[in-house]
From TrEMBL:
Organism of derivation: Dyadobacter jejuensis
Pfam families: WCX (PF25583)
Lineage of source species: Bacteria, Pseudomonadati, Bacteroidota, Cytophagia, Cytophagales
The protein's name: WYL domain-containing protein
Limits of the WCX domain: 77-151
Length: 157
């Protein structure tokens, strides 16, 4: 069980409900708060402090969703979409504000994102099923492929 002093400083929602963002006092960094997982709370008279110089808007510019992995670097993620309908959807509803797109010689759409990969990005990629392929970085491609292999193992007899 986590015990923490949390003050809601911002909300974050991208293709999902808003998430309250608080300040984790012990670790001195922002943290997303899953409201449905809070068992109880109580008001306290303890003075609460957080870094007022922390750039919350800038903090969320580098990744998809609400979970930032400090261990992953910001990279260029290249995704190939083979479905024109799905590509049009992604053009009108980008995964991330840094998203750009082009076409390869075969007519497939290539999307680029400048992000720190995380589980939310992987989930978004898997949401497109066989229509989307990770081209770069190779380590993310292998990570998604491992998840697909594990999924296949669940369904193969």
């Amino acid at each position: 069980m986590l015990l923490a002093f949390i003050i809601t400083l911002s909300t974050r929602g991208q293709h999902a409900p808003e998430y309250p963002i608080g300040w984790e006092e012990k670790e001195a960094k922002p943290r997303n708060i899953a409201l449905d997982r809070i068992a109880s709370f109580r008001k306290t008279a303890v003075e609460f402090g957080y870094s007022k110089s922390f750039d919350f808007k800038g903090h969320f510019n580098d990744f998809v969703g609400v979970t930032k992995h400090d261990t992953n670097p910001k990279v260029i993620v290249q995704l190939k979409l083979t479905s024109l309908n799905r590509a049009q959807y992604l053009i009108t509803k980008p995964i991330h504000p840094t998203q750009t797109h082009s076409k390869d010689p075969q007519g497939n759409y290539i999307f680029e994102l400048h992000v720190i990969p995380n589980r939310e990005l992987e989930a978004k990629i898997l949401e497109f099923g066989p229509d989307m392929e990770v081209l770069e970085p190779i380590w993310l491609r292998e990570q998604v492929a491992d998840k697909v292999r594990c999924m296949w193992a669940l369904y193969s007899d």
